[in-house]
Write a structure and sequence with these properties.
The complex is a heterodimer of chains A (112) and B (114). Chain A has strands at 5-7, 10-13, 19-24, 31-37, 43-50, 53-56, 65-68, 75-79, 88-95, 102-103, 107-111. By secondary structure, chain A is mostly beta strands. Chain A starts with a strand and ends with a strand. In chain A, 35% of the residues are buried. The model of chain A has no long low-confidence stretch (mean pLDDT 93).
Chain lengths: 112, 114
């Protein structure tokens, strides 16, 4: 019974490069949420997706960030032209229904 | 936007002691959840509360959903070294006009001295 999978676990990028983070939800879960955690802080909501649809992107920066959850394959969080302030842990959570979200191990992004 | 105030920010206790932490909000939620995060890992769900006034236990953990729907607390009894970690509360609004996103508190860092 596999949980939420995220890869890579660690990602290093230079300023200006693209970062692509992948999330495979629990089998059968159709709701995916992305959160960002800065050092010493709680998690902040970024975006909520269902298969092929973005439902709520109110927490996503307006520029450089995008997310998708295709019919087949993992959900992808894409950050273009990364800057040092993008360095954080990015967590994906999935749920079958609204209530209980189960989190992946996260991707730690470091921008040099 | 909605904010949660979680306290205390950190605790350093002796093994065997009981621990209590709480979260308050300026607005109501219809679900409260408590998570634990170990270093380098994602949050793990400990307890979920769905009804105002609900008191739920999971082993040595007990959590309550406040009557006003604006607060929740978590108690850990007889702490052990593996309880070390960061505990987060999270509030959630569900239903047709809400998306179920979680609003997290700032976390309580727990250290247990053997």
């Amino acid at each position: 019974n596999a949980g939420v999978m995220q890869n890579p676990r660690h990602l290093v990028r230079r300023r200006g490069q693209e970062a692509r983070l992948r999330c495979s939800p629990v089998k059968g879960h159709s709701h995916v949420y992305w959160y960002r955690q800065l050092p010493e802080e709680g998690l902040k909501f970024m975006v909520y997706l269902q298969k092929e649809n973005i439902i709520d992107e109110s927490g996503m920066p307006k520029e450089r960030f995008s997310a998708e959850f295709p019919k087949e394959g993992p959900s992808i969080l894409r950050i273009q032209q990364v800057v040092r302030g993008d360095s954080a842990a990015y967590f994906c959570a999935s749920s079958l229904i609204y209530n209980e979200q189960f989190f992946g191990p996260g991707t730690r992004l470091t921008v040099l | 936007g909605q904010q949660l105030n979680q306290s205390p920010q950190s605790m350093f206790i002796q093994e065997g002691e009981d621990v209590s932490m709480n979260c308050t909000s300026s607005s109501i939620f219809n679900t409260w959840l408590w998570y634990k995060q170990d270093p380098g890992e994602g949050p793990v769900l400990l307890i979920a509360l769905y009804k105002a006034g609900e008191l739920t236990s999971n082993g040595r953990l007990t959590a309550q959903f406040g009557i006003t729907r604006k607060d929740s607390f978590l108690n850990i009894s007889a702490s052990i070294p593996s309880d070390v970690g960061i505990y987060f509360c999270a509030g959630q609004l569900t239903g047709s006009s809400n998306t179920g996103k979680l609003i997290f508190g700032q976390g309580t860092t727990l250290q247990v001295k053997p």
